[in-house]
Amino acid sequence: MHNLLLFTLQVSSTENEGGLFDFNATLPLMALQFLALTVVLNILFYKPISHILDERDEYIRNSLTSASASLIKANELTKKYEFELAESRKRAQKIIKEAQKDAQIIVSEKIKEAQNNTEELLKEAYDQLNIQKEKALISLEIQVDILSDQIRLKLLNFND
């Protein structure tokens, strides 16, 4: 390549006649130089750079494909977990409702039991009061009888 450049410089320095449009051997030589430079640049620079760019494009495509696949998988997992979460919430609500229902049943049973116990206690208290009332009445009747007997005896003794 270096020799080719030197040759063109020698050819151009020997011929100074003409001007801008000299159609001698330099024009085809310049065309050959241009083609040779194009081939050399293509081999040395453009092919490796295009190869690197192709590899980069392939890497980006692969990365985008794997990212898309990961995104799809993440969306599927998100939907799955959201569905499972919704199901868990439904089950939890159902358990809570059942527990409240059971608690309400237990509370109402305890209230009924307490009412029955209260009624029994009231009945026992009423029965005891009636028994005490009967005893008090009997005791009063006995005392009234004793007092009336004493009054009658005193009156009979007083009249005699």
Automatic annotation (TrEMBL):
Name of the protein: ATP synthase CF0 subunit II
Location of the protein in the cell: Cell membrane; Membrane
Primary localization: membrane
Function: Component of the F(0) channel, it forms part of the peripheral stalk, linking F(1) to F(0). The b'-subunit is a diverged and duplicated form of b found in plants and photosynthetic bacteria.
Membrane disposition: Single-pass membrane protein
Highest taxon in the source lineage: Eukaryota
Family affiliation: Belongs to the ATPase B chain family.
Keyword Cell division recorded: no
Taxonomic lineage: Eukaryota, Rhodophyta, Florideophyceae, Rhodymeniophycidae, Ceramiales
Organism of provenance: Haraldiophyllum bonnemaisonii
Gene Ontology cellular component annotations, sorted alphabetically: plasma membrane; proton-transporting ATP synthase complex
GO molecular function annotations of the record: proton-transporting ATP synthase activity, rotational mechanism; proton-transporting ATPase activity, rotational mechanism
